[in-house]
Protein: Triacylglycerol lipase
Amino acid sequence: MLPQFFSLLLWVAFASAFLTKPVAPSDDSFYEVPQNISGYKNGDIINVRNTPVQVRSLIFPMNVKNSWQVLIRSEDTFGNPNAFVATILEPYNAIPSKVWSYQMWEDANDIDCAPSYALLSGASYDTINSQTEIPIIQYGLSKGWYVVVPDYEGPKSAFTVGRQSGQAILDGIRAALSSGYFTGIDKDAKVGLYGYSGGALASGWAAQIQPSYAPEIKDHIVGAAIGGWVTNVTSTALAADGTLFAGLIANGFNGIYSEYSQYKDVLDRNLDAGKKADFYKAKSLCLVGSATKYLFQKFFSGINPYIIPGEDYFNIPINQKIFANITAALTKEDGVPEIPMFVFHGQDDQVAPVEQPTRAYENFCSWGAPSIEWSLGANSGHGLELLFGTGAGLAWLEKRFDGHLPIEGCSKTVRTTNLEYPGAEAPYIQILEDYVQGIFGAKVGLDTSDISNTSLLVKVVAYAISKFVGLIGPLPLKRDGAMLFQEKAGNRTVDEMYKGLEDVKKLMEDNGIDPLSVLRGTPITL
Structure:
């Protein structure tokens, strides 16, 4: 089976070179803000079309019943009208009363990195980071949820500008609820929000400003599950400096000053003259491209940083105002969520240092937020929490869709990892099975899985992985002084774990045991 699978991968890579390539947003007139934009209200559908090509999952096409791109009226941070595109996906088992607003971590200042483009078969692999999220989207589709994926950064690709992003998300929900004449979505449908990292930044802002910006949709929203919650862009920029995540600084700053363009000269005159061209190249790079280009680069520290004043750049008066405006939960007047929230976060998050989302959580709670459940993974960083916390976020969200009530008030729980969250293991099995089935053309929602419970074996494995991570702790992501995995875990530990996994693999191969059957809890005979 494995050789055939790799042969299929090679075939897809070869065949994709000959597929019809979708037009990039920068060259697609569908994305243009119309001249009569002021004639529409926020959330109005300006234009709609079927996706120009088939949508895809990670690398492979995805077989959904219908997919649309919708141009929606919204507004920017300053109240000026604009428009953005959202993608609406309908599974074969669609439930008109359930809608999932999924915010991808686009994390770029280039409209050609937009989720609506990343979702298309044949789109540039520069958008690979967004594509890695589509198997998670398949999870919701398999459960019958319509999925709305907004290009929440807007027409200026204003990455990290929370108010712009939150408004677009809310207007995307408004549009989805009014789209029944072509999607079949019930106007009274329930809606859940989800996002990780940049998607959490955007989703958190949507929750914060919903009471003032879109009060009429409150009763539709069952909750927001967010992880790797970026609440303070200044903190994130300083934490990312000189690390694997340094590219976020270039992408983020270009995004900020695309929105606050009247102050772009403040950035320009504080950039090292010899590095300006390199810095502005981020405007044409998606996340993976910028991560590669700016790997371990220093923007504020070191002998020759990109930004001459270093950390003092944030003390320039106009910058103090700008960065305060894009900080979540800074003042009660900025808004307090009225919808249930679930936050999963890593104690050692290198992108969103835990002190800042903790501040936001504590502020919201003290200001009267009705329900916030905080689940902290004691041994996760930003990357590991994506792996270990996703199941928790999805399990929580499914309970909200199923009508289970959230907690009242605020609650914080620390776990070894969020793999230990009740029910967190089931989504991983479903995501894996749905993706594998999708490779072979399965109709999403009809031929794919809907897994809510798992075998005892799966629960034990998830618990064991969590405890193993607790044993070795988080891995550093700075180049200087970084330790190898073997140095942290110990060579003997790694060797023994590898040997044990090889023994299990050989046992399965020798006896013709299907690993997926084992995960499902199917009885086996040796």
Observations:
- Confidence is low (pLDDT under 50) at residues 13-18, 475-502.
- Residues 382-401 form the longest helix (20 residues).
- The two ends are 21 Å apart (CA to CA).
